[in-house]
Amino acid sequence: MPDRIAEHYERHAHAFDAARSRDLVEQAWLDRFLLAVPKSGHILDLGCGAGEPIARYLIDRDRHLTGVDVSERMITLARTRFGRHRWICGDIRAVEVEGPFHGVIAWDSLFHLRPEEQAEMIAKAAEWLEPGGALLFNTGSARDVTIGCQFGDELYHASLAPAEYRALFAEHGMIEVAFAPDDHATGGRTIWLVRRQQ
């Protein structure tokens, strides 16, 4: 089921982009994340979609973006909108990018991966980050696998348990800054902000 994510977002790229809220419920978290990213700093956006609204918000605050998304249609939209930044069509599990980055963001993307793949991505994010750099991502609130529905298609979601994420942070030299389970302000997402140790 996770391997059908690419097909889903490619087929529904324009519908997803049109439906994606521009209200930026994530703003408070993005502002906290940006405290660790200097002006003109470099951010890796995993599962960037078409760049709206998150990439636009970060770009408008003078950060440089490298966005990765599995949908060519999504990446084409991002390139059209923000041509001075770098956009890569690829699977976040396999992409090769040149770091280090001051920040890595994976908003509404890691939870489409199997739990063991999420663990691998946490390890990769730690390697990509500058010392002191920040990682912002969201998950479920407990270890679980759930099949949702979007545009009439089944859509895979999974999560590790909070204790498992914390063990990964400790293993890979990252410090938890903030954790919000079922955050009402962002529609019930469970959100993590962590930083790589200096």
Automatic annotation (TrEMBL):
Record carries keyword Plastid: no
Ranges for domain Methyltransferase: 43-133
E.C. numbers: 2.1.-.-
Keyword vocabulary terms for this entry: Methyltransferase, Transferase
Major enzyme class: transferase
Single Gene Ontology BP annotation: methylation
Protein's name according to its UniProt entry: Class I SAM-dependent methyltransferase
Origin species: Sphingomonas agrestis
